[in-house]
Amino acid sequence: MSNSGRKKPPLVAENRYGKRSAAKPKPKSAPKAKPKAKPKKKRAAVARKPAVKRGFLGRIIFGLFGWLWRIFWGFTWRVGLVACLALAAMIGYVSTTLPDVSELLDGRARGSVTLMDREGDVFAWRGDQFGGVVTAGTVSPHLKNAVVATEDKRFYRHFGISPRGVASAVRINLSEGRGPLSGHGGSTLTQQTAKLMCLGVEFDPAEWESEAAYVSDCRRSSLVRKAKEAIFAMAMEVKYTKDEILSIYLNRAYMGGGAYGAEGASQRYFGKHAAQLSPAESAMLAGLLTAPSTLAPTSNLKRSQDRAATVLRLMGEQDYLSLEEVADWQQNPATLAASAQTKTGGYYADWVMASGPEFFTRNTTEDVFLKTTLDQRIQKATEEGMTWVFENKVRKGSKAQAAVVVMSADGAVRAMLGGRDTNASGAFNRAVQANRQTGSSFKPFVYATALELGYHYDDLVEDEPFCMNIPGSGQWCPRNYTGKHYGTVTLTRALRDSLNVPAVKISEGVGRENVRKVANDFGIQSDLAEGPALALGASESTLLEMVGAYAGILNGGSAVTPYGLIELRLKGEDEPLMGTSGGIRERVISEGAARELIYMMQQVVNGGSGQRAKIPGWQVAGKTGTTQAARDAWFIGFTADYVTGVWMGYDDNTPLSGVTGGGLPAEIWHEVMVRVTEDLEPRPLPAFVPQPKAPEPKQQPTRPRRQQRDNLLDQLLRGLLGG
Q: What gap in Å lies between CA 106 and CA 264, rounded to an integer?
């Protein structure tokens, strides 16, 4: 059938795109002329590089590398993801084990000991001095800024570690020829706090030999240790705020001079609270953090001030201070409080610490307060007196040493010097640790024994050549220092002139065992010589023992135990745990014998070997002592108020040149006691006062008691001599 004349149907179904909606009629308007279409520009054909055709071998090699790269990348990102998840888990776990911030502010492994004088004023600190808790918000803002500027200027911007800081530190270490972990550490302030916390490990005496070993272990550097430190630091950032971390640091950091934390250091060096610190003082404390022992202002103030000037410059560069303020504070550096230099306590504090109970002094874990017998006025007088003699009487360059002890008659030690360095602390204390031969300073105990057994100050003894046969040693003949003999002399003159022969005769007459017992009972606990040289001071003793024994003579014949501790109490407690550890003990000789002995010793100073110890207006008694070859020189004497002993010699036992007990030791005693007695009212010694004798008849018979004693003495001596 023909389709001519018909319209051809469409080639696609009409409903393919759905039924079209009727078009809205457009308003009629004048037809516009269609703009002429611009002729399209033909794009320039881009010349494509022909594909590189690789050979069979090339396709294999490049395919192999591509395959390896895909394996490496797939392994790496998976391992990295696992590592990141593991790190996050470790950080999260460690953060859950961290205690509350309040438990971390006092990180000391041991407590502090605060020593107070007899008036209750602090004169020394020992142990780890804390001072009290501070926070980043309660300290001076200058201190907070100084620490951040010096230790970690990006502290408030990092997450516990600083990759940039570590990289910079490694670069500096390598450029200076050190290992990457040696020298500069690049640690953030958070990492330093983690070290102070020993990564959460507490001190255990059973695991470490000492606290020093524990600290050393906490400070060691290794890759493993650094990794643990980084994890711990990030865990701290999760657990604590930035100011809490800074608070931990400000309380636990060691700042030299035995002070831990900002408050302890502020009190130690400037005598004020950490909230009151000026920019210069804050810079000085912040400067200590790099080397607290070396830079401590009590060790070298100038070096500490120089370091503080650098810290002030850093504070200016980081806009904590203006340039004008930096210049002003650099020109007016911080200085120590008046009491800072003196609060070492020196030899006296060392002695009290050593003599007190160990668990409350040297190894205390508590904060302890010790009230002592120290008189700071007398201590200062002692230091000034000895220093004056060495500066004016001793040749320059001399290595001779000296020690001084000042004591009350009841044994209370008021001052102590264990060597020429009056500010020494932790040094060898010659007053209590040096056992030296006593020489003639021992003779008062010989005469004390005689007086107790019935002798009197005016009894007579023959000073003449005298020898003894000593079993196993042969003949021994004591000689006087002058090499002369003076015939019949009284006991008073024999002691006054320190004659050796009469001392030996009296000792042998009353019995060496009795002399030894009297000396022991008076407090000389050192081993005493067995032979007749006992009377001449061949035995050794310490200065403290000798002064304590002389105090027994002054108080009327009763022994004393030298002591420095009055009471011990814990911080925050009102009741003391213990009280006085010494004082007057049992009687050794009668009061009458003691008074006669004091009279005899008074003549030593008035006209005998101790005349250089005289003090105008004061009654003084004492005794000199010089050992063989002048290796030791002593003077021990007393007024009615104080007993003072001086020892002088060399640590290596080198003989002194031209020095005897009546020389430099007596002069040191004099200079010390002139200062001690200044402004005090003179009091008489409790000495026997001889009554003037009535003229004796020409043919007065010899007193029976004296004659009997002389006969007994002669018999004893003949028996000893084999005559």
A: 11
User: How remote is the C-alpha of 437 from its chain's centroid?
Assistant: 31
What separation in angstroms does the CA of 487 have from each of 255, 304, 356, 463, 478?
A: 69, 68, 51, 5, 15
- Rounded CA-CA distance 422/379 in Å is 10
Burial class (CB in 10 A: 0-12, 13-18, 19+), 231: buried
Where b means 16+ CB within 10 Å and e means fewer, 86-119 reads eeeeebeebbeebeebeebbbbbbebbbbbbbee
Q: Are 411 and 638 in contact (CB under 8 A)?
A: no
Rg (CA), the chain: 45
Stated pTM of the model:
0.73
Instruction: State pLDDT tens for residues 236-291.
Output: 999 999 999 999 999 999 898 878 899 989 988 998 999 999 999 999 999 999 89
Using alpha carbons only, give the angle 417, 419, 425 rounded to the nearest 5 degrees: 75
d(CA 379, CA 96): 54
CA gap 544, 581 in Å, rounded? 15
**Distance, first Cα to last Cα, the chain:** 186
490 contacts 450 by C-beta, under 8 angstroms: no
Distance separating alpha carbons of residues 506 and 510, to the nearest angstrom: 6
